[in-house]
Amino acid sequence: MPSLIIPFTPVVSAETYQLGTTQNPAGRVISVDKLSLLLDGKRWMPVMGEFHYTRFPAAGWREELLKMKAGGIDAVATYVFWIHHEEVEGARNWSGDHELRRFVTTAGEIGLRVVVRLGPWCHGEVRHGGLPDWVVATFGPRARTNDGAYLAAVRGHFTAIFRQLDGLLWKEGGPVIAFQIENEYSGPAEHLLTLKTLAREVGLDAPLYTRTGWPDLATPIPFGELLPLYGAYPEGFWDRDLAPMPGFYPAGFRFSPLRTDAAIATDLLGERTAADAADTTRYPFLTCELGGGMMSSYHRRIRIDPRDIESVVLTKLGSGGNLPGYYMYHGGINPEGHTSLQESQATHYWNDLPEKNYDFQAPLGAAGQLRPHYHRLRRLHLFIRDFGSLLAGLPAHFPAERPASRDDTSTLRWSVRSEGRSGFVFINNYERLCPLPAKPGVRFVLHLPGETRIEFPTLPVTIPADSTCIWPFGLDLAAGVRLDHATAQLLCQIDEGKNRTVFFAATPGVPAEFAFNDAAPVILQASRGVALAVADSNGAELRIILVSPADSLALWKANWRGQDRVFLTRAGLIVDGSSLRLNAEAASDLTVAVYPPLDPAAMLDGVFQPLTANPSSAQLEPSPLELVPLRTAGPAREIPLGWTTPPVAVAPLDADFAAAAAWRLIFPPGLDLAATPLLRLHYTGDVARIRVGEHLVLDDFFNGDALELDLTRHATALNAGTTLTVEVLPLQADAPILLPDATRPSATEAKLHSAFLVNRFICTI
To answer: Do 504 and 490 contact (CB within 8 A), yes or no?
Structure first.
């Protein structure tokens, strides 16, 4: 029987941080203590998602940022890639898709805060980490040091960034709340401090300054100068090992007080044992790189399961994390340069990445697609949005019995966040590519201070295989109404007048037991109606709604028409002022219901009022395109190994595509491609390339997933008759690459199986 002793949490001792201006003109204050971020002196747990403005057309920024907000993102983080703005020395480009000012302004207008990752070395799989070629050629090993001439060049870049952000800083009433200095830096701390000073000198002043908490610095950094932010990925493209889940990746699926992840950047840092710095616990546990997905390098073709992402995030929350920060939350496509701007072994970096594709299998794809983990994460974000201020003040506690090794799949993985009276039990029974068996006989025993003992549920339950959940205990849900415990996941709450409605999600396979105010527990059934109503001490009503697991993934919350509301829809949902927009690939998904109802006299589905939603235009269901073969594949190339130790496979060069199979796609006559957003290709091969005319617009290293292209970006050329062609290089069965077993061909193959037009239906209410 899982058991844990939870002490009272002492008052947080004061720490002194040397950061930036904390107050904006409206008097709002962003600050920090050793437990969490603070907004106006109250605990604050924002959710941060990475979206690179230079990797997405400016015309679509607003819609995509609205999708991020609808998914529960509070702050958008973005790199400023120096090479994207000044590829040629002195020829700076801050216009169009490179206009940082417009991107930040748009984010602020829709209510998002912004974290700017300044660099100057950013990485992000950009060539030279984002340093322009001329910087690398001029300064060589003096780059990323306190060399005076290099710092003068950095000052020019930082000054250009300030001109973009002038008037948009928090202290000026703008949305920019933080700057990250450098990235994955392992040199002397003095260089980071010099860059911070330089940023402040040119005017880049924000409440928070951060750095990546990995790797170790060559010299200690004075406490409080830069907040360390951490990360964890389900699996990475950068490893040299061609086995799945090598090294320390499984540790990301286990609760632990350790913040540093040893699996990040093993290409640069090598295999190592993770250890936190001595002053780590004097900082709050904040993250900036929880993997929202993963790119494929040429030698490691990662294919993400949506549960991978949800599990890692839940585990970090249960380990004390107080800022879920995703890399990436929104994918993109690399901008045009004089040459490829992406990292490669040819440019003496460790990995070959696609030249154009930076989709990252993110919750929001490079074409704005909503992936299954968008919905899984949104379910967590509902909880964080309404109860994060409570959770942020609760330290993490870990049981004495934890998995002894990566091979221990029988020990239950769990933790508790509590101040000694109330809190949450976090359970993770999922690990990527390692099926975890069901855990029978689970009943938690929590020893709280003052001889208090909580045991729940009443009867032992079985935690299903490959499941995750968060169960609350000791929570005051309304005046005089204490939830002693629940074996269901807390989602969100709605206040309507004096009454309050609290939504929970049933845990699959586990009876939903609720206990209030020391009364006998009751088992509730999932539905769309009120499962239980309780009068509080003020005469108001507390309503409990327990939704099914499927409905919990279709639940949204936003302020609409002057009131916080909960929506139920399997379509994508955006609230844009008074407008409610739905989008879906199938017209049958364009249904939505709302609570509280707009019309109390309307016919209801449980407590929800269905709203009429009709597509704004008649569009076709997904339809196949005609494929005209242009040439058959030649012999598979001999794959060379690169310069690294150990060496890994090298991606093909342009000349190698003379041996690629090729097809031309025929679009239906009269079709307006400006209204046909998505092309979906299913193929088998090594590398695929899509060209509009002779222009490369997207490429992909095959991992079994479909390749999708936003056609609206190329509609003008395609509507004018420019051809779209697809090339696929043959993939040999014994290629020295990591590939999911289910997708590896049994013989050399280069085949385009199908090409579909996918219409995303849109309606406005």
So the answer is: yes
